[in-house]
Amino acid sequence: MPEELKIALVDDQSLCRRGLSELLTRCYGFNVLGAVGTIEDLRALIKEQPDLLVMDLRMKPMDGLAMLEQLRKEGCTIPAVVLTMSDSETDLGNAIRAGARGYLLKDMAPEEVVDAIRRVAAGELVVAPTMTVKMIDMLRGDQPGQEPKNSLKLLTEREREILQLLSRGESNKAIAQTLKISYDTVKQHVRHILNKLNLSSRVKAAVLFAKEQGMPEDSESLSNKHIESKQQSSK
Question: What's the domain count of the chain?
Answer without folding.
Answer: 2
